[in-house]
Amino acid sequence: MPIAFDAQSRTFHLRNAQVSYLMRVLENGTLGHLYFGGALSAKGSYAHVSSREFLGFDNRLGEPIPLEYPTAGIGDQRVPALVVRQPDGATVLDLRYASHRTFQGKPAIPGLPSTYVQAHEEAETVEILLTDTPANLEVRLYYTIFADRPVVSRSARIRSVHRVPQAVLCAMSASLDLPDADWRLVSLSGAWARERQIVERQLEPGCQSVGSRHGASGHQHNPLLILRRETTTEEHGEAYGLSLVYSGNFLAEAEVDAYGTSRARLGINPDGFAWTLDPGLEFCTPEAILVYSGEGLGSLADAFHALYRDRLARGVWRDAPRPVVINNWEATYYDFDEQKLLAIASSAAELGIELFVLDDGWFGQRDSDNSSLGDWTANLAKLPGGIEGLARQIEALGLRFGIWIEPEMVSQRSRLFAEHADWAVGVPARPRTQGRNQLVLDMSRSDVVQYLFGTLSDLLGRAPISYVKWDMNRTITEPYGGTLPPDRQGEFFHRYMLGLYELYDRLTRAFPQVLFESCAGGGGRFDPGMLAFAPQTWTSDQTDAVERLKIQWGTSLAYPVSSMAAHVSAVPNHQVGRITPLSTRAATAFFGVLGYELDPTALTPDERAQVAEQVAYYKERRELFQRGRFVRLRSPFEGDGNETAWMAVSPDRRRAVAGHYRALNRPNLGPSRLRLRGLDAAASYRVSTWPAGEDAVAAANAGLRGGDELMRIGLLVSPEDPTEARRLGDFTARLFDLEAV
Ligand code: DGJ
Predict the structure, then answer these.
(1) 196 vs 42: CA distance, rounded Å
(2) Which of 471, 544, 599, 737 is catalytic?
(3) Choosing a second label site near 15 at 20 to 30 A (CA), which of 229, 421, 440, 700?
(4) 381, exposed or middle or buried, with CB in 10 Å at 0-12, 13-18, 19+?
(5) Contacts of 723 (CB under 8 A, 6+ apart)
(6) Greatest CA span in the chain, whole angstroms?
(7) pLDDT tens-digit map of 273-320
(8) Does the beta carbon of 359 sit less than 6 angstroms from any atom of ligand 1?
């Protein structure tokens, strides 16, 4: 039984073989947090963990009593989870336990994406009702423990039973108190084309946070907070991961108090947020996923990957092999016509590529980024047969057809704007800030959502479209909901997300066979909220292999390989001008959902042969790359960052591919070795290298090797002969194929 309640000590124990989560109704009725970490025995009450005869905060102001859902104004001076402005203007809240119920399974959250179970036995949930009598407020906390994952899911619902409205000013999805502050905070931070780099800092007294305030989870930070011990590695040591299933403004924060304890909180960013709670109505927070690992960051990632791949992504594309795509963006940008596209597609089909994606520029009068967003009808000057005509011709070539859209946007030069200028987000009396020459549609309006559903359904219904790349190229400025009253403008950003999720939900239900890929100027909205609708995301506009190693490594801290679209592009690279070998670009993109984003008609015969071989190589191992266990071996964020290595291992450990990458060649490397992980120590593996070649490294590793040897001694990754080492050059990659015999 994963959730036990000891009535005498009023202690909840959520437990499986991997983790325990303990909380207790304290003497004064508040809900105290006792523990979250490695599994504890089911015996015993653990009530003594909150050792003092706790009498509330009456006598011990500011002392760190761990609380499950802390509120402001009653003596806990740390950051709160909940702030509600009541009709008398006060924000003081003191939540007391009222009741609880446990049940099998996991409830959905109205209007919001969340993880799910397929069978009730996969998880158990406890709903705990806390109330504040003077405020006439009810708070329901939901905790779900999965039967066989080191995961606890949390969310909260806040309901007013007052006669008059009150305002929720802060409602976190989770708050987690830890008894010490000896943690390093790991965040995924960066910028456009440099997303999700690993940034670490030691927790210090006070608050440290990352977040977003511009309407999307963002390029700058990811809604993820990891705490690890100084000594934690990929394989050993403790780590917590808190991840928010949400795509809008978020806050991920850790506070260290005067007593050296720490509190992490994660949820919608309270900055700029205020939600009017009408009598009887409920506000639901997004879901927070809490993972604990006692075996390093690798196990933490394993848990996130499996959960997000198998119980957050949904629909037929959750488990189906993802197609290898050719995308015309970097091949043509806006400069194309039907003939050019068909030449690209037919050339790609000859190489074994499976799906053609028509990117930006196919609609309205769009020849640059300064017009036509919103006018989702084909530009007949470019595509005389319209989308339908092009899609049918692409299908006749043996490829499936996919299309780019950016539904949340409108250009000022567009028919849509001429007809509905009021649909663009903005404050009536102020100029609107342009970003990429475009404005954002007000997704908090139901008429906008309804209109977009109609328009996009029409597009998807008219032509054989198998794939949609849903882009979002600017963030929100002058936030203001056109249909919201002045006192409810603090709801705008969240209502935007609710509208966006509704649209995604309706479209993915109406077109279940379509594979959706989310995108936001590259990886500006790579988050679990999007993955609930679009099982893969365009990882970054950065297609350079060296930069991609870092981006994909960072992303893999929480997100599975099946969620990372990764394309091979032309050189010199369009983002950084770097020239890397074609094999290195492919070896990097293989550890993602593979695609090509170049003009295949411009390739030399030798390059074409290479690409055809790459596509065949990937397809033959597609299941392994897309759904195998991803094991990180050598970090581009450690040391001089010159080397990266990782591997994909099949669930039965009979097959694996390890990738080793070296940015710059260095003199006198010596015969360095790469130790693998996750193999069967007792098995023998046949080792071969890719790209195939007769060099000394390939020869030295070829043959049968024991799993124990591969994990303890490893593979040679630098030639022993200095003359050969000198010839290697920069930006090299090598894959090692392992097959148990
Ligand atoms: C940004 C995306 O990340 C690119 O891949 C491309 O689709 C452009 N937008 C098109 O405008």
Answers:
(1) 39
(2) 471
(3) 229
(4) exposed
(5) none
(6) 83
(7) 999 999 999 999 999 999 999 999 999 999 999 999 999 999 999 999
(8) yes
